[in-house]
Amino acid sequence: MVTSSVRMAIEGSSSPVGAPPIWLRRAADVRVLGWAESSDGSTILSIEAPTLGEAAEEIYRQPALWDTKPAPEETALNVFARAAREVRIGNADSSLYDLGLLKRFGHSSKLFDQEIEYVDLPESRASQPSLARLDREIATRAQQLTEQTPASRQIRVFGRLDMIRHSTRSFEIFLEGGKPVRGVLENADQIEYLKSLLGRSITIVGKAVYRPSGSVLRIDAEGVEEGEAASKLFAQIPPPISRRVPATRIRPADQQKNWMDAFFGSWPGDESDQDLLEMLSEIRG
């Protein structure tokens, strides 16, 4: 969970394709040096962790790409604590977690099946930092946010390529109207091609990943082409098709008479037949 939180804050995705980079393994090297008992009976752990500026020096030499990039003097544990706070308060528009990290928080309920009631995590390296609480309640909230998160959908969108970070395969484009959207390349080999297109219009084919609120978190880019798509229909990222339907909330009667709606969701848009035909013709090439 610590590793996924740091990867989310710096790369924009908690579990991208490929082995964890060396800097991430260094940053997540969190060690328990000892423990002591406080006056109220709680156990206080003494933790050692490198600062992110030391562990990921090559990352911090580059300009900031995302507003979630932690300060170099912080540690992986601080980043994890802030992600935990966002989940606990139910911030459905947060950029500090995605669906993969939410599921890990949801599975943390197993930690509290025995004698542990909660764990307080420091959000900074200050002498008296704010503490984020990890307990059974946060696992429940994570499961609720997971159910609220819409499924990713295949998209085609164009915009102006504004920023690239080679070390994390990440980029940012501006859509029509000046709205910035972050993206992550699934194929690291495309980063050199992307560098040649900096500042120009590009078309991206991939998957839109959404927050629980339904807003766009990022694009997982499968392919990049120079130039704009022919239709203005691709100037903006479409809204999610539907939210996830928990199996426990589908009544047996609905499984028989409305199973298609329960599985696929309903068509969300009000596009005309002509609009749909144009979209299909462009997708088919």
What does it look like?
Helices cover 31% and strands 24% of the residues. By secondary structure, the chain is of the alpha+beta class. A five-stranded mixed β-barrel has the order 5-6-7-9-8. A two-stranded antiparallel sheet has the order 1-2. A two-stranded antiparallel ribbon has the order 3-4. A hairpin with a 5-residue loop joins strand 6 and strand 7. The protein is globular, with a radius of gyration of 21 Å. The model is unreliable at 262-268 (pLDDT under 50).
Return the structural class.
alpha+beta
Helix content: 25-40%
As a percent range, the share of strand residues is 15-25%
Mean pLDDT: 84
Number of helices, where a helix is a run of at least 4 consecutive DSSP H or I residues: 11
User: End-to-end span in angstroms?
Assistant: 42 Å
Q: Uncertain regions: pLDDT < 50 for 5+ in a row?
A: 262-268
Sheet bearing the most strands, described? 5 strands, mixed, barrel
The total count of strands amounts to 9
Task: Report the principal-axis shape.
Answer: globular
Gyration radius, rounded: 21 Å
Looking across the biggest beta sheet, what order are the strands in? 5-6-7-9-8
Quaternary status of these chains?
Answer: single chain
H/E series: HHEEHHHHEEHEEEHEEHHH
- The total number of structural domains is 2
